[in-house]
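The authors assume throughout that readers already know how a fold can be written as discrete tokens. For illustration, here is how one protein appears when written out as sequence plus structure tokens.
>
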Amino acid sequence: MKAFGRDFSMTQPMAAGLTLLAAAGAVPADAARRCDAVPATGRGILAPDVVGAADAARSWPTFCSIPATPRDVPPPPAFRAAVVDTRLAGRTVVADSAPDSFHLADTAAFSARARREAAAPPPIATPGEADTEAFIRASRAAATPPRAPRKR
């Protein structure tokens, strides 16, 4: 059953080692050949117009261009309170919309309560002359005259 296990386990590390050794020998030779082709400026690969455009106008940022720290950002406790409020509202919605939170029984009581709430209020009775005179007398008795201005 395990006849080929030893052959594969011994040849795979050897093959990996030989591959790495061959790659390590090829990289320095290729790097040396590329370094000879590049002039001392390091820009021999780029076209002259690209080098000229890069050297032309450089606008470097300054410390003055760093924006000020925003002042209208709420502090971390305010963020925490908002998150807690949102989670509580979500739990309330889930609890209110749960399958056991409402039922369709006792519809007669519900319709009676709805009719009472929707009924028109009784008509407003207009006050009589005696009521108006009594109201005027009570208002005048309760009224206080304005204070006299201070003398300076």
